[in-house]
Amino acid sequence: MKLTFNSNFLFIFLTILIVEILIGKYLHDAFIRPFGGDVLVVILIYTFFRIFLKTNNKQLALGVLIFSFVIEFLQKANYVTWFGWENNKIMSTILGTSFSVYDLLAYFVGYLICLCFKD
């Protein structure tokens, strides 16, 4: 693993971040917001790390997938209340408040997409 700066991944990260914000703010459907947004969040986290790290992309993608799964299972334990953020709309939205098996599937799809990026 090496520290670096990759402007291509910065561009991808910023593009996905803007798309995620737009989805969260304006899209209230039953598929793209809950499933597509969760697919994109895995790619968003992955591309953020790739801006600064030159590393094995498979290991990084797996690490992001495991992190995403851990957060999802913490949602089942209602962990947002541990921090007193249950009434904070921004933090509740970012961290999530409900467990779903479909979210785990979405994270896995995002992981598969991350595997398509080259080292």
TrEMBL record:
The record's annotation in InterPro entries points to: DUF2809
* UniProt-recorded name of the protein: DUF2809 domain-containing protein
User: What lineage does the source organism belong to?
Assistant: Bacteria, Pseudomonadati, Bacteroidota, Sphingobacteriia, Sphingobacteriales
Has the keyword Protein biosynthesis been applied to this entry?
A: no
Q: Where are the transmembrane segments?
A: 9-28, 34-53, 60-79, 99-117
Q: Which UniProt keywords apply?
A: Membrane, Transmembrane, Transmembrane helix
**Superkingdom of the organism of origin:** Bacteria
One Pfam family it belongs to: DUF2809
Species source reads Pedobacter kyonggii
